[in-house]
Design brief:
The relative contact order is 0.11. With 398 residues, the protein is α+β, with helices and mostly antiparallel strands.
Amino acid sequence: IFSSLASVFITRFINAISNVLVLTWMVLTHTPFTILSTTLPILISVNVVSMVAYTMIRYAEVSHGSGDSIRSRMRNIWIVTKETLLANFLASATTAVGFAALMLSTVPMIVQYGEVVALSVVISWIFSTIALPACLLIFPRPRPRDWTSKSARWSLYITENYKLIFCATLALVAAFGFIGRKQNWSAKLFDEMPKRHEARITTERVDNRMGGMIALDIVVTEKQEYAWNDATNIAKLDQLTRQWRKHAYVGSAVALPDFLRAANLVKNGKLPNERKAIGELLFLYSFSDSRPVDSFVTGDGKETRIALRLHDLSADKMDGFVERATAQTKRAFPGASVYATNMATTVHHLNNELSIDLIYGFWQALVFIAALLLIAYRSARWTLVAIVPNLIPPILLL
């Protein structure tokens, strides 16, 4: 955009100091730097660079043909600062208000992120507004390249064919919005690293050959004591375990019937069909140093679990399987309390909740930004003109 190195230096200098000031503020206020905060330098840079570049281009236009004396430069800087102050303020204010809307979230990390970004944008705007006039006075006048002042003839085509452009854009938005209905949460846990990375190789080997990576426990609690000494309950539990073991999403499945069958291997390798026999086998397992059955049935015999290891699935598939598995268990044991637990029920679900929360935050941000623009423009029509184009990029992303 600029042909002078001084213009590039001014932009980089103000951008760098703005980032340093924001990070210093975070240190002084003991604000934690989370994984979401890694986007902070980028957001500050986008805000600062756009303000500085816009102001310097306008300064070059105003000062064109005027003298280079200190008095002349100060007068031109004062004119440009007054002209661009409201525009730069609105650009920063709408960004700050948009991120501040995230503070309405119920997720603490997102609340903190919205607060940090909003305050950071305000800090960067204040510093840029103070520092830029001084830099323009100290350094040589910015020299934009010739093409920045040429007329944008492409805009004439748009204004001449505004009905066609509007209808085409509306059709595109409608089509992409319709496709966006089928958005699935396809994030996995262990597919982010490069394919030849050691951690990626290890997780894939465990996932494919060693019984799956993601743990899921289906816990069943009966009302009566020693309910899992009952042969009928054990048979139902065994049927569920065998059924899930054949499922494409399941790498392995272990439950109480597997221990009973293993203990009965010398005899006939089948499940015991009498309450007394099951009690004897569980009693024998209690003599083991490791007592493996203790993690599959409680001491009072009321609660048991099916330990599943699932493959690294996308979040939508994981949620769907957990829901179906829980429903199947409830149908098999209608009088029991059934719930799912472990990693399969938390990490993927949390990712979905965060994604959905951010999506709703986008609409909340638009409402607050529209209110701010309505105050600034005092026109509902111009507020709508400013807001509607913001809907197109997210729909294209969908």
